């Protein structure tokens, strides 16, 4: 019996090597798809789409749940592959967690009611809204949560009758190829196709006349390029772009009580999460206590090779991102900021390990605060009055998430509603839920995912309207 990796990787001597960011060892070879391969995949998905739609909602739901069963069957093999390729540890909110989230999101997408809605039936007029498939959807994913975000893109489209062509990140193609392989043990041929190619494949997908919608999660510059490329074909787009999430601690918070949640809000996936806490505003009266509590937590959380069961933090996934984090921290140190913990990586260590780093006494306009670091470094900014903190939190052109930390629910909610972000958490950060719509404000993108709202973004709303009695509910 072959392993999952053997089933999906390129034959010996072909493809491109993929290395473990924790050790530098080659773990497998990814196929290298071309634009011609993309064309063939889109044609196959286009041919399969009418039949997938014709199965009906109930059958699609049944097959989606069977696909979720298949993920559970392969869960450990998928988690190990993910850990080796992305670097995240097996335990904690990491590889096994991500595979479990794939199952949860896939099943959650089968629950909302997406049947036609009667919006007027007053004896004079009848109007209904029906939700029909768009056709073929192109999904371009990132390297930080490659499997989970692929499911965020795949699941709603499966439910709504679309077929999907997935292009994984060049850094983490094997885990997505493995996930798609597993899903396809339950799905009809051509419904879901993965094309592991380079930037040219992504660019071609964005402009392709055979793609009806693009879903993208990644950086703002790449998202902007995709939007421009998609304009000529007026295809629909959902963009979940970068964030630089602010958290505001109010003066009635308990530093010891919130420290663990603050830490994991910032350092989940070793800080490599779009909706992670990336800049923390703390009032004068609590500043030293919050710094002390966070430092104590940071020193206690083990970092290392993901396959070692004791580790909860891993390496930065690629050297380019490692260098960005390192440069921002060094610039902060040079500017006079105080490094509470971390900030001194071992230059001789194997892998892309950057230590868990907390930076205090830093100005709000420092690049470590103003730019998205996307790694294991958190700046902690002191504020004197709450209005100042809110102004700083809202001062950037991104707004994916934000959080407020307080012992008073009313105060927290009042502040939350003044923050410019798609999601604002209270006394937690980044705890997304498949039932709750998720999307960005400002430069962090547009369109929402999850819940019924996310499903409907993957469909064409068709309004059917006429005089009462001109058609009946049974006919419609």
Automatic annotation (TrEMBL):
Gene3D superfamilies: Aldehyde Dehydrogenase, Chain A, domain 1 (3.40.605.10), Aldehyde Dehydrogenase, Chain A, domain 2 (3.40.309.10)
Entry keyword Oxidoreductase: yes
Name by which UniProt lists this protein: Aldehyde dehydrogenase family protein
Catalytic residues identified in the record: 240
InterPro entries: Ald_DH/histidinol_DH, Ald_DH_C, Ald_DH_CS_CYS, Ald_DH_CS_GLU, Ald_DH_N, Aldehyde_DH_dom, LUC3-like
Aldehyde dehydrogenase domain location: 17-462
PROSITE patterns attached to this UniProt entry: ALDEHYDE_DEHYDR_CYS, ALDEHYDE_DEHYDR_GLU
Family of this protein: Belongs to the aldehyde dehydrogenase family.
Keyword Oxidoreductase included in the entry's annotation: yes
This protein's UniProt keywords: Oxidoreductase
Annotated spans, Disordered: 1-30
